What we know:
By secondary structure, the chain is mainly alpha-helical. The chain has helices at residues 2-20, 51-56, 58-77, 114-122, 171-197, 215-226, 261-277, 284-306, 310-318, 332-339, and strands at residues 34-37, 42-45, 82-85, 88-91, 132-135, 140-143.
Amino acid sequence: xxxxxxxxxxxxxxxxxxxxxxxxxxxxxxxxxxxxxxxxxxxxxxxxxxxxxxxxxxxxxxxxxxxxxxxxxxxxxxxxxxxxxxxxxxxxxxxxxxxxxxxxxxxxxxxxxxxxxxxxxxxxxxxxxxxxxxxxxxxxxxxxxxxxxxxxxxxxxxxxxxxxxxxxxxxxxxxxxxxxxxxxxxxxxxxxxxxxxxxxxxxxxxxxxxxxxxxxxxxxxxxxxxxxxxxxxxxxxxxxxxxxxxxxxxxxxxxxxxxxxxxxxxxxxxxxxxxxxxxxxxxxxxxxxxxxxxxxxxxxxxxxxxxxxxxxxxxxxxxxxxxxxxxxxxxxxxxxxxxx
Length: 340
């Protein structure tokens, strides 16, 4: 009874606290003024705001408007078709009405792998297998793969030696080697699929045998053979006239932290010179010549505009305003002789 009374008191306190809290309603006034775009999960509240009241309580007004728009958006989302999958509710959104620019391009569809292309051509369907299977040896369900898997061939206490196999060969080690090879092959196929999807260089198997090997192929095979020892070719004997291989790679050289300050100063000045060359320099002579040329062209245009037309020149000649020697021109003596 003591426990029951204690629980009843806790329930009463919770109910009393819940009565004090005022929950907001999901019915919004002026709902038709809120523009919705369910495809982009966008709600635009177009209700008018009192400017005088907004200057005093701007945060509260903005919070209330945002809450109303969000409530109307959620009300409209629950009216859409809903389906339940893996304990979650999924809503199928309609097509977006508002065009929004994208920062990046639309992601491309992943290209199919070699196995997917082969299965499509052969009509092979992907059947989902169960995770747990029955183990005959332990008489219980175990994982199909991974740690403590069922029917593990490497854990057999007895392995029958095949007729065509070496009787002194370790069959357990043979199975482990075959498993490592399968794992390596699967990893190589995975890397090839990733490289093919990213349109990069597909990793190969190293040096593969060819019918007519080239000089570079032989030199690369020789470099690989030199480094196949435990010392990575440090103590491998060289031929008398063997040239250093060009496939050995380049070692990175790190300068000491304490060294010649003169060389360090020279490198820093060289770097500053490279950076300063990127800044465009102004050729003063070329700029001055361009300005002078523009001034000359402007003066020439002004002179052309001040010249009189040809018709006006003819009228001046008839009125006696022309140059000496022309009709109506010259001095008074010559004009009198011509009249006589």
